[in-house]
Amino acid sequence: MNFREYKIGARFFALALGGSMTITLLMPSFDINNVSATEVAMDKQLWAGAESGFNLDDPFLLGWHKPLKVLLKTDPKTGQPMEPTYAYVYEKGTTFPGGVLHPDNLGGIAKQLSIEKGRIKEASKNVGAVFLVKADEQKHYYIENATATMGWTPEAVEKAAGDENTLHAAAGKTLFVREGCWWCHTLLPEQTQDWQVFGAPPMLGDFNGESPTAFGSDRKAPDLLHVGSRNASKEWMMLHFFNPRLVQPHSIMPRFDYLWGPVDANGKKIDFPKWRAEYNEYREGKRITPPEVPMYARNSEIRSLIDFVLTLK
Amino acid sequence: MSWRFDAPLVTLSDDATTKKNETLWETEMLGGLTEDNNPVPAPVVWLVFLTVMTAFCVTFPLWGQRPTAALYAPYVNSMDKPEVLAAKDDAEAMQRIVAMNKGTSNDALLERHPLTMDDLRLIKDQVKALEAKHVDLRDYTVVGDHVVIANFEGNYRPDGTRIRQQPWWDKGYTIDVFYLSYFFLAVFLMIKRLPPTAWQPRHGHGASH
Amino acid sequence: MLKYLMAKNEDIPPGSAAVYFGFSAITWFVIGTGLGAFNAAKLAFPDFVTGLEFLSFGHMRQVHVHAVIFGWISMAFGMAMMYITPALGNTRLWSEKLGIWNAFLWNVGLSLGLTVLWFGMTSGREYSDFPWFIDLYIVAFIAVPLGINVWMTIIHRRTQGIYTTNWFFGAATFMLIIVFIVGNLPEYFHLTGLTEAYLTWWFAHNVLGLWITPVAAAIAYYTIPKVTGNPLYSHRIGHLHFWSVVVFYSTPAAHHLMSAPLPEWLKSFASVEGVLILVPAIAFVSNILLTMQGKWNMFVENLEVRFTVTGCLMAIPLNMQGGFQQTRAINWYIHGTGWIVAHAHLALLGFSTFLEAAAVYLGLQTIMKRKLYSLTLGNIHFWLLLIGFTTYWVSMTIAGLIQGAGKIYEVPYIDVVIAEHPYMIARWIGGSLVFTGNCIWLYNMWMTARAGTVVPEGRMPHELAYER
Fold it and tell me: What is the pLDDT of residues A154-200, one digit of tens each?
């Protein structure tokens, strides 16, 4: 075998690897790119924002520059009561999600409607924008830029909704990624019986614009894709995050009490060592009730995480 | 250095052997001092053949795991039969429904996905509505109290809609057939192009020198 | 070692890069398995070390995974390449200095990368968790220099042919670069949705299939003939192995997402290809075991052969699992359960680690011209690794089957957690045994460098009797 054989070998190697990548990457990419975003995908990318993993807008995954999902009960311009509507608020400087930046990502009719009726191309990062998910008469969903169509500014919408109707779900998803929740909780119900417990499986177009999808692969805990539909109790979530064994004695989930930050909702310093000591007494049977879990502050990280979990419908 | 990088052949051998090995190493074509030119053993060929056969057989959709609407449609349709309505309670009604619908190819699946009368009542209207639309009920999955379109992205129907079922044969298998044929053809040609197995160097274990 | 960073290439003793890589690899192995045992303790005892964000499971798990994959396994590969590639080309390493810099930048980059992951700066994509700047660093300062050194050494060889091991080394370093560039496209170009999910698993599958599996096998192709003195059984089976790795192992990425709504044809294709990874496995195992004929006594007597053959035997259950667990018929039962965790450890801690440990044992002794300090400690290392791994694998496989059954019979999730608890404790014990073994190994290797008997000129270390 002289040198020529190795030249042939190298070419065959390129052919084999190239062929494999053509079949496994190029060919499926046509199928996947042809898919239109569903209503689920539009909602999800609008509340989760452009990127929940590492990115330059939020390099330390602290929830910087994230959109808000708000429930509007009054018209932010007129102040008149209106049909409750979810709006997605992108303050100045917040990067828009994939579908708004690249309408091709929405695909087909959704792209056309979003541009023509929804005027998403007029949205500008420099002033911020408010988006809605709308449907036309034929039930075709599209994204509407309410700042362009109705003149709703991010500030007015936030004010009209009020803090109690604001969900920091995007910052919460960032925490979901940062704190490694997805190492144990999947976001993809498996086939069959799993669906009966954890809810309907997602469809092909349900992920457009979402990054990372964070399906998870090693499930040591329940699937969370539809957790907000199973359990919508903020109080339960609060206890469960502070110390899962308060509500589920056999849980192996870590405590996330450190996400409360230094102070509680009243601005009072949380005394973690004291809480843990009292909890240990309770566990040893020296106390009848566990210590009270402090109510979290409005701007604490745990608030975003709970908002995120409750958004997973 | 015990093992000289510019002369890795230096081992226990005397100089003459080292010299001979060096010549062999630098001229032989198979790529190394420690490589033999044995044929591929027949059991290995058979194992590879068996693997290919198994690969196709085991990946065919031999059984569907998902409870489709088609599975429960006969149950739903039996709900209004007089003998079911005459049952004294739900448990007995369900027993009758099950007994009535035995003997189809779905028996095993139905056994794995048992329902109660309450479950049936929840999906009854949805299944009836789908039947009225004359869609293929196997495209729908029953998830709890919902009948939803299955998330299979299967083959296309002539009208361009997707078949929401695990396909028996699809583009993937076709690609596999060609992909494998090219591979085995190429490997066969290459192995045949190698020097005959009687060709030196041979380093022992029983082969004739 | 650091003094050689600025030395002239000619002044650096041959093999220095390999030694640097070798000791770095063992150190990362100790760190990686230590983290693994710590994480396992947290799963077994959830209130063990609590309330500290940076010691929480979610922050530590990926550090464990990346410390063992890119620290231990990949640096052991670097070590093997630094000394096997030139040996098989009957030449010197192309650039010893590049090798030293490579190992240095590897340690720096990996420390940085793991710190970043530890602090939660992650892409949120399994196995490609590193943020994109670390990915680019890995390509530019880890994978490419390694590849250049390997390719240039092969080109400058003084032999006619290229030995099987070097085909794999040359090809795998190239494929690693491709996998890192293509697999991380979602981060560079912000791809989203199923494309992102699919590429994540394309990366994860191929970093194992096109880097770890072939290089580990290539190492066995060197150690077994070298130590036993038998020539590799067949060049022809070597061809079958090499080409089937490239053709079959690179394709089944979609089988990681069998329950996601990917196009069915892609799953069908991937599933058939997934079974076909048995082809390279059959070729590899048969070639190595046939090479052993007449020398099976060394399986008992020689530490390197024992490690290699044990790893090679573990390739059999590994590939039987890997081939069949991904088919539609089985995947729905075991996907996402502890079974998969057991399988991943069978691949990395069983199959591949045992092969690399042999290469590191053999390489460090040959290059440092020192006989292994203590066979007893070596044996303890072997058995702690094997028993620890087996405990882990058996317990996680059982836990996985419990989870699978729980899934199928719609058992309330918490009951599954309770049922798994004993196995979580067993997993922690297994992991701790492995960690202990590695600490002993590091000591043994350190003492070999300091106090091992000098191997005389012209001898290989395995020709000398063990002393302790």
Answer: 999 999 999 999 999 999 999 999 999 999 999 998 876 678 788 88
- Site of tokens 């693994």: C36
A195, A223, A229: best to mutate for the B interface, most B CBs within 10 A? A195
Judged against a pLDDT cut of 80, whether residue B64 lies above it is answered with no
Q: Between residues 235 and 274 of chain C, which touch chain B (CB distance below 8 Å)?
A: 235-240, 243-244, 247-248, 251, 261-274
Instruction: Report which secondary-structure segment, H or E, holds C276.
Output: helix C264-276
**Is the pLDDT reported for residue B7 higher than 80?**
no
Q: How many Å lie between the alpha carbon of C296 and the closest alpha carbon of chain A?
A: 32
Question: What is the average pLDDT across A221-230?
Answer: 93
DSSP state of B64: -
What pLDDT, on a 0 to 100 scale, did the predictor assign at position C159?
84
Chain B residues within an 8 Å CB radius of A193 = 113
C161 vs A1, A182, A253: nearest CB: A1
Strands (E), chain A: 68-74, 81-90, 129-135, 141-145, 166-167
A204, two tokens: 């092909």
- Residue of chain C minimizing CA distance to B170: C265
Give me chain A's average pLDDT, please. 93
User: Closest Cα partner for C125 from C259, C258, C256?
Assistant: C256
Give the chain A residue nearest B148 (alpha carbons): A200
Enumerate residues 6+ apart whose C-beta is below 8 A from A138. none
User: Which residues touch A245 (CB under 8 Å, ≥6 apart)?
Assistant: A251, C46, C47
* pTM, full prediction: 0.94
The values of phi and psi at residue A196, to 5°, are -65, -30
> How would DSSP label each residue in A276-310?
HHHHHHHHTTS-SSPPPPPPBPTTSHHHHHHHHHH
In whole angstroms, what is the distance from residue B166 CA to residue C352 CA?
Answer: 36
What is the per-residue pLDDT across C307-344, written as a single tens digit (0 to 9) for each? 999 999 999 999 999 999 999 888 888 999 999 999 99
Provide the β-strand partners of residue C156: none
Give residue-wise pLDDT tens across range A55-113: 999 999 999 999 999 999 999 999 899 999 999 999 999 999 999 999 999 988 999 99
CA dihedral C396, C398, C403, C404 (to 10 degrees): 120
Task: Decide if C397 contacts C344 (C-beta within 8 A).
Answer: no
Condensed to tens digits (0 to 9), the pLDDT of residues B121-159 reads: 999 999 999 999 999 998 998 887 889 888 888 888 888
- Give the C-alpha separation, A119 to A114, whole Å: 6
CA angle A198, A202, A206 (to 5 degrees): 140
Query: Nearest CA to C286 among C278, C274, C276?
Result: C278
Report the C-alpha gap between C154 and C161 in whole angstroms: 10
For range C88-109, the mean pLDDT: 94
Which tokens in the block code for residue A172? Answer: 């919460």
Nearest CB partner across the interface for B35, out of C158, C232, C276: C232
Joined together, the tokens standing for residue A44 give: 């999800």
Q: Are B56 and B104 in contact (CB under 8 A)?
A: no
Per the model's pLDDT, the better-predicted residue between B5 and C464 turns out to be C464
CA distance C23 to C5: 16
pLDDT tens digits along C6-53: 888 888 988 999 999 999 999 999 999 999 999 999 999 999 988 888
Does residue C276 contact residue B48 with C-beta atoms inside 8 Å? no
Q: Coil, strand or helix: which one is C119?
A: coil
Count of CA atoms in the C-beta half-sphere (13 A) of A87: 32
Q: How many helices (H) and strands (E) does chain C have?
A: 20, 0
Chain A residues bordering chain B (beta-carbon distance below 8 Å): 1-2, 12, 19, 23, 31, 191-193, 195-196, 199-204
